[in-house]
């Protein structure tokens, strides 16, 4: 009668998601009286990226008899940089290798993708809309990592709560389709929402995007903060030419205060091109949610103070000036 | 004082990870007396894949006043196939769109990658070793999906428990490095483990893989089930030539009963080539863990029995003979 | 005070557009008493194509003391096929080489492009809309060649007259822009035109193509023969997805008798794709008008009955079973 | 009993080659009392090019009640530059859209290709030899445009007359083949031509080009102005190595005053390479004659002084500082 | 005062060209009392090819106390095929490894290239003209290998003597240049040579190849066996078009008995194309002379009857049914 | 009863390896009283390279009644540079064309490849190990050319003798396999060799290269000069990662004085990469031995002081400031 397959917080903290072979290793080392051997382990990635997930790692290792050094969340790392160093009796942390590496891999993957989007946006803002593309248990982990990487907000309610911000987002196509007319629902939306809410209306459901935008701008007047364009791929998606025409015609009709918000399969490249012709803000989903985890490796670098390594690796510690000592 | 950022089961079930705009939509539709409108929504993917994650979706929608049709776990779908159809008052399920799509996207992504591995393995078996590459909260979700896709086992303890199987795996490099010699630890491992455990020893830590394999085979005799080769990329990884030589020399020395288990960056292509020259079994990590979620779209296809669609989509239901009615 | 730079019919017939060196050649050969030498010349192309232009050539050579063999208009030729053979005293036709080759080159180029369009259309029809892309003096030459190649009609009035058919075409964007609304002008157009005229209305000027089509279909009812879609490249052009949606929604609304006519940068490839999803008829401009002329070469193959050739060519006649004797 | 299919000057001027739909448009607008609406239309190309053909356009629009601004012949334009602006009652010029655009498209295409050749030639000269590759009615239009683009002369007699220059050209292969020996005909050509004519002899008909050049140079002595090399593709065409050898051996034999004139499939690239090794002058055919027309678009930008545009285009005038007011 | 740097036959036979480390190996093995160890060594290539050079190897190993198995000259081998197996005390043949491998590598490389030419020639014949591209000491080795591969003759006098055939070849460009006229020297050549000599005359030195061929054919009449075309790359080399024209014009003039012999940078591809249009015979230089040696490896596969191998290779003999026992 | 097929020194010097047609040419020219014609011939290559082989050419032409100019061995030449000029009666040297060109072609090919290796090595040294890949008669010719190109030594005994240097090289895999253990044979090798011999031991025969290197370093102590790594392609060859790890672990163990010598399929590119991570010296085989000969052409440029050339070439001498007069 377990309804959801994800691990609970308690299961994670007590190591239930670890790989079986770490438990076996501890049994065997104990048999050899080696389980308390002092080792120094280092964690490193194979790719460039943005560091995230360390807060969970600290909670997992809290109260263990070890020393730890690490990077801060949001800092960038290069391939083979040491991002965490742990020193202590192997039995204190050996069984958590799976859990630690996994927490970092996912978070760093999402934070890194968000950073690439941020670099494309420059001064302009973007929201993370990826919650619908990942398992709900990690949706808040992802949106939190996206904000570390540079996102200006998130639509997932729980994520916003964790980050202590307001969740963001407009009305979806479903609302329009049920109401049957964009203008009709936009008017109710305008009435219902609190005064300080920034009204943004989705304009591609029924009519030509430009025609609908002008119609909504006329209906809501100064109350309209922006319009959202999300043209589906079957209609060619949102193109620079469309945004250019939309901006031009909104301005011509006196609506230069209306912002243009774009969503739908956005990538850094597309964002740069749309931004140049007048898009003001972006909603990004798959580019962040589908980012591959950044795989992390944990290597034992010293055993009882002596450098070691397996074949193919160089023995001994690898210094990284960004590492800071962490109080657990 | 929340230690882990993932959503708890309770949070997921009560919709805390949904996107904010669905709640707003319900408010506004209510204002318009439209929240109880009967709608039929369909969920479809954009890519070919293997269906997984539906058990969680059923639990999420349990006790709602809706009708639902869906595929079985493990069935394959093509692009634009309807994989779920839901009919009922919009307020009954509208707010769960984010959660449902996310649960499917992740699970289908992993199951599909596992199926590709399965097709490369043919009659041979493989284990999912990807737990270390994803957030611990979804590690059991991933390993469960991998088994749906075709994996013969998993190393994550909790996943094995959920699947009601024994977790699998050998000893890691860390054990070898702390013990300082592969033969020494292999002998203790052999003593300590229950008789029916299949002893598999990792052979690339200190010595030439072939030399170490012969040394371990001599030491453990008939107790040795197999050896694992995981040569790091710095040493060229595991190649067909290496496996061919290893098999040849094990056989020549009379150890033809010793299985060869391979791990390290495996893909369907590499598995096919290694299998041809004698590898017996495989451990697969990133190929499964880094699989992109298969994004799902939920479109409203009928409103009060009348076909609707936004611009770019075709109104009305899309039949799929694989759909079965589900008792919630 | 010549208003137009093209050659008049009289100038062409008397050889005024020939290259100067042919006149000089005749002077010099006369000085050598060689201008009456009997020669056999053959004309051949370098590419595959469709033969056109021979009617003008016959008129140019009418009453000359020569024998001539040639292909029929509309027949296909392969590279190096003899398409015309002329035998007679060199002075009778030598000065017309430039004129003959030019008349064929242009006409064959256009007819060949039209044939490629025809092959893409299969049973469906297409009109040549290229008059606006070529000098008005050759617009009727081009449209005539297009009909030889397979076009079902032409929009150029003079061309239609030469071909003894009705000129075809709908109303242009200019009409819509001046009237300010597509429906308004469509209604007047419907009133004004004779009953048997097939009413086709252009629908992409102001609104979403699908919305406008349904609006016009409702307004004109059974009087509407078809709609024309000519979406500009700035809006992604006419795509298979758009046609598919348009056909689907016209049918759903009961307008399955309304034909879909497409124009705008059409090529054989695009026509095939649009035809598959429901386009009924096509308007083709640049693909025909911008077709390169098919350059023709005239080589002297016999002098006084003896095979000759310049270096690089093979002396003597090249037989072609398609050649027929022509009465001049 | 029309012998040639091209339009006569009278037909062009009275609009007989226009597309039928412009006449219909006028009828319908008249019915709506809109045919005298004041509109401003602009013509623009999609590509970079050289402007030509405006003289004919002015003659076509002479005496109409409109204002017009335009570029000069020979000026370059960029994509989307306004090249012509016309303002006045629509009925005054609407029916001439087809004719005007066509006159420009062909002339600009040829002038642009000629300009590219000119840029490759630098200080050296080239002649347009393309008359044999286009319909005789437009041969003078093409050669005139080529001269606007940069050609130093033309071989078509009528074109030369229109341009008030001497037509240029040497003797063709036909002359050599009938005479049977290059030297024999060269000697007669030398005798017959006026003293100030620049004698150029074609040398690739029967013998090795170098051997024949030296033979002709010896025969004509100081009377020889140059030789023409036109080696056919079957013999590898005219190559830089051949020109280098020819120049070297002419110089070695004391004929350094003999110019080398090249023809046969020349392109800007080949001209640059041949020029570097000693070619003095060029005859260019297909590169100019097969140049695609540069399609022009006429858009209505203002109706009764108010900016308009169809979907996908930006309303209102587009300024171009090169535009000058034209007195019609 | 050594005039030539190549090794003499005596130096080769006594091992003076061996690598120094084989001598050292024997010294050290002797010190260890291992120099008389019985070993079995096998020689194998890495590429497909044609076997040649074994006659020299047999002479080098004559009178050694060993057993040997080998392929025949002219047989083909595949990658990793055993081409020679030697069994005996290591000191009997160890020092000859360098010499044996080298003799095979060069000869097999040349024989293989000749075989590729042979396959392109089909029934037609070709001569090896590569002597001028390799050191004179190996010119006869190369031409002998070429004949094993399929060449029908060789121009090197010593090679012909070794092969007991007549050396072949025509007159070079030097002869033509000194005589100053091809016809003049061809006539003397015709007079001087014995009656049964096949007269072949090189025709590209001074004049157009076709013109010169017809001139020589007329001068020598039925005495002319063939003409050789060797057009230099500066003039485009010998092309299929040239051969086609040459054959056509020789036949037209009644010289259908005159053979066409081609030389100059020939490859299998070019030979196939030239053969199709009438070339009768070929002279091949660089394609054979520049063929890379086919590197051979000698591996010890058994030591005192026990299979051995270094890392990366499989221990024990590799059977090849083509191997035959050799009586030394 | 000729045991080896290569030409002897005497055969080479008396012209026995020349092409037959040069002898025929002399006969015919004699018949025409032209064999004593004074000609100037020049030899040129088609590619950039390093000059070698001239010492043999001088010996071949010694005592002929000619004048000669040439480059020095080791000088570089560009395509079409005159590298040798010979002036004198044709009969004095005409028959040696084949021999001279061949001697240069092979030697220049090898010297050029060695120069490319030298440029990749920079300050580091390399040995030529290619003797096993070419016919033994030219092995000393090749190794001599390699030293001219930049090699620091050679393993072929005779080549070393000609160059008056010590032959170089370590022990081969055969020695290790017969002895059965690398350490055992390394110890005997250490005892047996003279004190000043630089001991280099091959370490990849039986064990992991790093493990074996440390084992040998411990056994031989300060006597060990270097180790040689020659990992076969079946095991991935020698890679930068392997050398980096080897250097790191040798240094860590206190053996920083031990040099790393690499062999096995080396190219300039691979040498650069291996050198950067710590390789000290290189053994190069196929890159040099398989270098294509650099084909040379001898053209007659003057006959009795008058410039001549065949079609396609420029008559007269081509100056090269590097040419020096040679006293024969
Ligand atoms: Zn970055
Ligand atoms: Zn949308
Ligand atoms: Zn599948
Ligand atoms: Zn490993
Ligand atoms: Zn066809
Ligand atoms: Zn349009
Ligand atoms: Zn320009
Ligand atoms: Zn020509
Ligand atoms: Zn073969
Ligand atoms: Zn030649
Ligand atoms: Zn160089
Ligand atoms: Zn080796």
Major sheet characteristics of chain A: 6 strands, antiparallel
CATH superfamily annotation of the largest domain in chain A: Aldolase class I
- Quaternary structure classification: homohexamer
- Protein structure class of chain A: alpha/beta
Spell the H/E element sequence of chain A.
Answer: HHEEHEEEHHEHEHHHEHEHEHEHEEE
Q: Biggest interface pair, residues each?
A: A-B, 115 and 115 residues
Provide the gyration radius of chain A in Å. Answer: 25 Å
Strand content of chain A: 15-25%
The overall pLDDT average of chain A reads 96
Number of strands of chain A: 14
Low-confidence stretches of chain A: none
Q: CATH topology of the largest domain in chain A, anyone? A: TIM Barrel
Whole-number total of structural domains of chain A? 2
Bound molecules: zinc ion
CATH class of the largest domain in chain A: Alpha Beta
Explained architecture:
Six copies of one chain form a homohexamer. With 328 residues, chain A is of the alpha/beta class. Chain A has two domains: 135 residues, nicotinate phosphoribosyltransferase (Alpha-Beta Barrel); 175 residues, Alpha-Beta Barrel (TIM Barrel), CATH 3.20.20.70. A six-stranded antiparallel beta sheet of chain A has the order 13-12-1-5-3-14. A six-stranded parallel beta sheet of chain A has the order 7-6-11-10-9-8. Chain A has a two-stranded antiparallel ribbon with strand order 2-4. In chain A, α11 links the parallel β9 and β10. The relative contact order of chain A is 0.16. The structure holds zinc ion (12 copies).
């Amino acid at each position: 009668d377990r309804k959801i397959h994800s691990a609970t917080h308690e299961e994670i903290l007590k190591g239930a998601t670890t790989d079986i072979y770490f438990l076996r290793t501890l049994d065997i080392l104990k048999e050899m009286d080696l389980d308390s051997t002092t080792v120094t382990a280092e964690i490193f990635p194979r790719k460039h990226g943005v560091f995230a997930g360390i807060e969970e790692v600290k909670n997992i290792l809290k109260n263990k008899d070890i020393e730890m050094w690490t990077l801060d969340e949001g800092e960038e790392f290069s391939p083979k940089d040491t991002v965490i160093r742990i020193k202590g009796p192997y039995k204190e942390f050996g069984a958590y290798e799976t859990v630690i590496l996994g927490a970092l891999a996912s978070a760093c993957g999402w934070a890194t993708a968000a950073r690439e989007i941020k670099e494309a946006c420059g001064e302009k803002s973007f929201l993370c809309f990826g919650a619908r593309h990942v398992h709900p248990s990690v949706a808040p982990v992802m949106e939190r990592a996206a904000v570390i990487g540079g996102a200006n907000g998130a639509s997932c309610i729980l994520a916003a709560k964790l980050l202590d911000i307001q969740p963001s987002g407009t009305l979806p196509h479903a609302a329009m389709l049920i109401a049957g007319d964009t203008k009709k629902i936009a008017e109710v939306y305008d009435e219902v929402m609190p005064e300080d809410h920034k009204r943004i209306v989705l304009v591609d459901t029924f009519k030509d995007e430009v025609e609908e935008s002008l119609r909504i701008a006329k209906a809501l007047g100064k109350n309209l903060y922006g319009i959202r364009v999300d043209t589906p791929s079957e209609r060619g998606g949102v193109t620079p030419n469309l945004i250019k025409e939309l901006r031009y015609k909104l301005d011509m009709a006196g609506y230069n205060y209306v912002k243009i918000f774009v969503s739908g399969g956005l990538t850094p490249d597309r964002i740069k091109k749309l931004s140049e012709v007048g898009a003001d803000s972006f909603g990004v989903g798959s580019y962040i949610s589908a980012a591959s985890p950044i795989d992390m490796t944990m290597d034992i670098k010293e055993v009882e103070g002596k450098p070691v390594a397996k074949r193919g690796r160089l023995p001994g510690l690898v210094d990284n000036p960004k590492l800071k000592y962490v109080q657990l």
